[in-house]
């Protein structure tokens, strides 16, 4: 039926394609189908109701004014924070100094920590009664805060946890990028006595552009679907004020037991991120070029 | 060009001041990065009552670890997590190495289509396919089973790892494979005996990453398992709500969950750093 080469090519991707089909494509199609039906977990009538769930989601004030802004704010701040911190650390590790290997190992620690564990650690550190942060604050005469039950402090802590978790990724990939840059331009700049800032601004940054673009796009798409740390740190609370998109879909499907509405939210989120993925790639590329 | 000085950090400071400042800054950064983990370890070593004033007191004990290890559900969760991570790593590599090789070595409509597909599916948020996967696994009888958790864990890495593997193979000169085929190797022989061994550093890097990702994954297990297949991340998240006041036990469990990941990462660090540099 096929030539020898085509058979080889198809066989190489067949297992991957089959798994992708069964465990991603099929569920997405079934989820799309469920999103058009009255499908409560306690009473799965499965009657066709058209776009009702979609209308319910996009007219839900909680989704429009809390979940969506939270998700975008989180995505932008988390990626920006981890990029700046990761780039700074990569530049630090790129110059030789004593103990550099040890420092590198310590800085990569968050890579190994599960988001759930990170969230548990941070929850304990910011515990309102016994957490070390409040103990220290009270020791120096300031008032301890109930960090995780106030909207913006809780949001800030979630953000901080995420940046802590993902900075090493940027460091690792940007360091690899830095070390593969050609040496000659930097040597020429050093002979001309160029300042550190100008070397960074006009040599390092432009030459690192491709690596930065790839890191930012990958990370932004991942930040959009953040679930673990929010679920473990605040569960979306206080109230629903720190809910992100993944939590919104999960809560509707498995806590409110409305699979139809949860699926509709999941599909809407998927479409949003697809659009963002394309736009982001173009935008970041253009900004980086300027 | 060894004579050329690198541009200096804060050039107006005298060298001694610069060095001290640099060392202090580095020490502070390391402390900030390691602090949460150190604090967790310290908490896990405190006795039941000492946990509320971790910062003072000098009694330390391993009792929390003993208590955690006597809990059958936690031990089962550790074993399940280890088993699933290991199996997922093996199968995921089998599947993605060949798919990445195809993307790198062949051009044409099939290759472009496959690349577009994995690029799009890489963007799809987990919740958008794991949520409906909940009723797919139920109707296939895979809900709350090893297989039902393992297969999605293999599927999730296909897109990202195929993409990384393509990059790795792109960096390897294919002429060795052509030479092997001229000498009578089949295409499969050239792939398995020539291409795969030369990509071994990259494959090791992916193995380390895959094991860590699976060990640390939470959402899949939360949605796709009930009581029969407890895994460590889910058990710990339940801890937070069920035993919210017993922080010494929680910390001990978390430290034990960190340990295998640390060992794997420490052992594999050089592979990851080398592998990602290609």
How are the secondary structure elements laid out?
The complex is a heterodimer of chains A (290) and B (278).
Chain A: H1 4-34, E1 37-40, E2 43-48, H2 52-58, H3 61-94, H4 100-107, H5 109-112, H6 115-125, H7 132-139, H8 151-179, H9 184-191, H10 196-224, H11 228-233, H12 245-255, H13 259-289
Antiparallel strand pairs in A: 1-2
Chain B: H1 15-44, H2 63-69, H3 72-105, H4 109-123, H5 126-139, H6 146-170, H7 175-182, H8 187-198, H9 200-216, H10 219-224, H11 232-242, H12 247-275
Summarize the structure in short.
Chain A has 290 residues and is mainly α. Chain A has helices at 4-34, 52-58, 61-94, 100-107, 109-112, 115-125, 132-139, 151-179, 184-191, 196-224, 228-233, 245-255, 259-289; strands at 37-40, 43-48. Chain B is mainly α and 278 residues long.
* Tally of structural domains of chain A: 1
Low-confidence stretches of chain A: none
Q: Give the C-alpha Rg of chain A.
A: 24 Å
Mean pLDDT of chain A: 85
| Biggest interface, residues from each chain | A-B, 93 and 93 residues
The name of the CATH superfamily of chain A reads: MetI-like
CATH architectural category of chain A? Orthogonal Bundle
Instruction: Please mark out the parts of chain B with pLDDT under 50 across 5 or more consecutive residues, or reply none.
Output: 1-5
Q: What overall form of chain B do the CA principal axes indicate?
A: globular
CATH topology of the largest domain in chain B: MetI-like fold
Can you count the helices of chain B? 12
- Share of helix among residues of chain B? over 70%
Q: What does the overall shape of chain A look like?
A: globular
- How much of the polypeptide of chain A forms β-strand, as a percent range? under 5%
**CATH class call of the largest domain in chain B:** Mainly Alpha
What value does the average pLDDT of chain B take? 83
CATH level 3 topology of chain A:
MetI-like fold
| Count of discrete alpha- or pi-helical segments spanning 4 or more residues of chain A | 13
Family (chain A): Belongs to the binding-protein-dependent transport system permease family.
Keywords (chain A): Cell membrane, Membrane, Transmembrane, Transmembrane helix, Transport
Membrane topology (chain A): Multi-pass membrane protein
GO cellular component, one term (chain A): plasma membrane
